[in-house]
Amino acid sequence: MIDTLKDIVGDSHVLTGTDMGKYSHDFTRSYAWTPLAVVRPANTDEVAAIVRLANDSKTAIVPVSGNTGLAGGARADGAIMLSLERMNAIREIRPDARIAIVEAGVVLSTLREAAEEHGLIFPLTFGAQGSAMIGGNLSTNAGGSNVLRYGNTRDLVLGVEAVLPTGEVVDLMSELHKDNSGYNLKHLLIGAEGTLGIITAAVLKLVPKPGAYATAMVAVPALDQALGLLNRLQQATGGAVEAFEYMPRSYIEQHLKTIDGAREPFEAPHEVNILVELGATAPRDTQPGPDGRAPIAAYFEDILAEFFEDGAILDAVVAQNEAQRREMWERREAAAEVTLSRQPIQNNDVAVPLDQVATFLDRANIMLGRVDPGSTAMVVSHLGDGNVHYAVWPKSQDPERMDAIMEGVEDIVLDLGGSFSAEHGIGTSKLPSMARRKNKPALAAMRAIKTALDPNNIMNPGKVLPPEN
Amino acid sequence: MIDTLKDIVGDSHVLTGTDMGKYSHDFTRSYAWTPLAVVRPANTDEVAAIVRLANDSKTAIVPVSGNTGLAGGARADGAIMLSLERMNAIREIRPDARIAIVEAGVVLSTLREAAEEHGLIFPLTFGAQGSAMIGGNLSTNAGGSNVLRYGNTRDLVLGVEAVLPTGEVVDLMSELHKDNSGYNLKHLLIGAEGTLGIITAAVLKLVPKPGAYATAMVAVPALDQALGLLNRLQQATGGAVEAFEYMPRSYIEQHLKTIDGAREPFEAPHEVNILVELGATAPRDTQPGPDGRAPIAAYFEDILAEFFEDGAILDAVVAQNEAQRREMWERREAAAEVTLSRQPIQNNDVAVPLDQVATFLDRANIMLGRVDPGSTAMVVSHLGDGNVHYAVWPKSQDPERMDAIMEGVEDIVLDLGGSFSAEHGIGTSKLPSMARRKNKPALAAMRAIKTALDPNNIMNPGKVLPPEN
C-alpha cells in the first residue's frame, strides 16, 4: 500500500510515523488520531489514483485541507489521510465574469488577497481564514460573519470538480449562473464533509469590494427588537448590511477580563450589544466628502439618530476610522479566545428562525438553570442569520450532566424549528445529535445516497451519518 | 387501483377518461398523453398514500402542478398523474422573518400578490406566473428575468417537504439561513423535475419590494461590450440592477411585425438593444423629488449620460412613467409570441459563461449558415445570467437537419463551457442532449442516486435521465 502510494505521488509526499505529527490532531487538539499514512497528491489524476487504490483495497480515506474544522470531521485513525495542500493554484481570475477558478488547497485568505487586486472580494470570512482552505470550506459549507449579505459557501460556488469514492472524476466546473441539466451534484458534494467524494477544484463567485464601510456598536432595549432594527436598517440602506453580530453583556464582561487592552463598547453598560457593519460600492456612497468621510458613514449616523429619537436604540458608537472599526471587530473575533478561556466547555452551534433567537435564549437559560444550576452560558451570535453559538461553562463536571445540557439545548432548538448544527457541521462530534434529531426519512435517504455513491464505505467513513442501530 | 385511489382522495378527485382532458397535454400542445388516472390529493398524507400505492404496485406516477413546463416533464402516458392543485394554501407569511410557508399548488402570481400586501416580494417572475405553481417552480428550479439580482428558484428556498418514491415524507421545512446537518436533500429535490420525489410544501424567502424602479432601453455599440456596461452599472448603483435583457435588431423587427401597436425602441435602429431595470428600496432612492420622480430615475439618467459621453452606449431611453416601463417590458415578454410566430421551430435554451455570450452567438450564426443556409435565428437573452434563448426557424424542414442544428449549438455551447439546458430543464425533450453531453461520471452518479431513492423507478420515470444504453 505505502509503496503503491509512493508510486503515485513520489516518495517525499507519502508520510508515515512521526512525520505525520501535524496531521494527527485537530487545531484545538480536541481530537487526535494516527493515520495509516499521509499522502499529498499534486493534481486531480493523482487524487483519483489514490482513491481507486483505496476503493480497490477497501481502505478508509480521509481528505484534509486546512484542518481547521471544529467537529472532528478529519479524524483519520488507520486511514489514508489525503492532504490537498499541494493543489494550491489559483488557476484563473476573470474580473469581467467575476469568477475565480481555484484548486482545493488554496488558503482562503490567499484567494481573498488575489481577488482584492482586481477590486473584488471572495466574501467568505471567518477567524481561521489564514489557514482554512477552499476544499474544506466547500466540504463543510463554511459560514462566518458575512453570510447575511453574501450567503453561505454554497451560495458562492458556481462549479466544482470532485473525485467520487469510485475514483471517477466528476467535472462540474461550470461557470454558469443558470444550468438545469440533471440533479444538482454540486450542492450534494458541498457540505457532505468529504463523505461522498473529494472536492479538488472549484469555480467561485467574486463580488465588488465595498469602497467604504460604516461600522457601529449599537445598543438595543431588548433582543426581541433586534430583528425589527435589522429590517429597518436593510430598508433604509437598500440592503447594505454586511454583518449584524450580537454580544450580550456577559460576553462583553468576559471579553474585558480575558483580553489585554479590551475596552467597554459604550460609556454605560448595556445588555444587548450589536455590531453592525454596512458596506457600499456605489461612488456616491463611498467617495469622501469635504470632511474626508464616506457619505455612507454620515448617512448611517443620520439613520441611527432617527432610531435613537424613536427609542429603537439606546446608544450607538460609529467607528470614526479604521482603528476604531478594527477594535469593534476584534471584540467580536475574540469569541473563540473568550469562550475557551474556561474549561471544560459544552459547545453548541445552533440556528433558529430569525424571529426566534430571543425566545431560544430565554428558554435555554431557564433550562440551564434547571439542569445545571450555577453554570454560565457564554453567548455570541450571527444574529442576522439566526445562528447562535451557545457555549456553556458547566458548574458540574459530570459528563452525563454535560450531555443533558446538550440535549436540553437540542430540545428547545428543535421545538423552535431550528437546527442542532448551524455552520460547524456534524463530523463525529454531532453524530449523536444526528441520530436523535434528524428527520428519520431524511436520514434514511442520506444513507441510501451514501451507499449508492460509496458502496465500500471508504470515503471519510464514520462521519456525518451515525451508525444505523 | 382506481377504487383504491378513490378511497384515498374521494370519488370526485379521481378523474378518468374524457375528464382528464386538460391534464393530457402541455400548454403549448407540443406533447399529448393519456394518463391512467388523474388524482387530486388534498394534503401530504394523501400524497404519501398515493405514492405508497404506486410503489407497491410498481405503477408510474407523474406529479404536475401548473403544467407550464416546456420540456415535456409532465408527460404521463399510462401513469397516475398526481395534481397538486388542491394543495394551494399559503399557510403563513411572517414579514419580520421574511418568509412565506406555502403548499405546492399555490399559483406563483397569487403568492406574489400576497407578499406585496406586506411590502415584500417573492422575486421569481416569468411569463407563465399566472398559472405556474410553486411545486413546479421548485421541481424545475425555474429561472426568469430577475435571476441576476435574486438568484434562481433554489436560491429563494429555505425549506421543503417532499414525499419520496417510497411514500415516506421528508420534513425539511427549515426556516433557517444556516443549517449544516447532513447532505443537502433540499437542493437535490429542487431541479430533479419530480423524479426523486414530490415536493408538497416549501418555506420561501421574501425580500423587500423595491419602492421605485428605473427602467431604460439602452443601445450598445457591440454585444461584447455589454458585460462591461453591466459591471459598470452594478458598480455605479451598488448592485441595483434587477434585469439586463438583450434583444438584437432581428428580434425588434420581428416584434414590430408580430405584435399590434409595437413601436421602435429608439428613433434610429440599433443592433444591440438592452432592457435595463434598476430597483431601489432605500427611501433616499425612492421618495419622489420636486419633479415627482424617484431619485433613482434621475440618478440613472446621470449615469447613462456619463456612459454616452465616453462612448459606452449609443443611445438610451429612460421610461418616464409606468406606461412607458410597461411598454419596454411587453416588448421583452412577447418573446414566446414573437418566437412562435413561425413554425416549425428548433428551440435552444442554453447558458454560457457571462463573458462568452457574444462569442457563442458569433459562432452559432456561422454554424447555422453552414448547416442550414437561409434559416433564421431568433434570439433573446437574459444577458446578465449568460442565458440565451436561441430559437431557429429552419429553412429546411428535414428533421435530420433540425437535429444537426441542435447538435451544432450544443458543440459550441460545450466548447465554451456552457450548458445545453439553462432554465427549461431536461424533461423528455433534452434526453438526447443529456446522453450526448453530460459528464459521464456525473450522469452515472445521478443514476445511482435515482436507483437508491426510487428502486422501482415509479417516480416520473423516463424523465431527466436518458436510458443507459
Automatic annotation (TrEMBL), chains A, B:
PANTHER family assigned to the protein according to its UniProt record, in alphabetical order: BLL6224 PROTEIN (PTHR43716:SF2), D-2-HYDROXYGLUTARATE DEHYDROGENASE, MITOCHONDRIAL (PTHR43716)
Record's keyword terms, sorted: FAD, Flavoprotein
Protein's UniProt keywords contain Manganese: no
A GO biological process held by the record: respiratory electron transport chain
Protein name: FAD-binding oxidoreductase
Domain FAD-binding PCMH-type: 31-209
UniProt xrefs under InterPro entries: FAD-bd_oxidored_4_C (IPR004113), FAD-bd_PCMH (IPR016166), FAD-bd_PCMH-like_sf (IPR036318), FAD-bd_PCMH_sub1 (IPR016167), FAD-bd_PCMH_sub2 (IPR016169), FAD-linked_Oxase-like_C (IPR016164), FAD-oxidored/transferase_4 (IPR051264), Oxid_FAD_bind_N (IPR006094)
Source organism of the structure: Marimonas arenosa
Cofactor field: FAD
Gene Ontology MF term list: catalytic activity; FAD binding
Pfam families, per database record: FAD-oxidase_C, FAD_binding_4
Superkingdom per UniProt: Bacteria
Family as reported in the entry's similarity comment: Belongs to the FAD-binding oxidoreductase/transferase type 4 family.
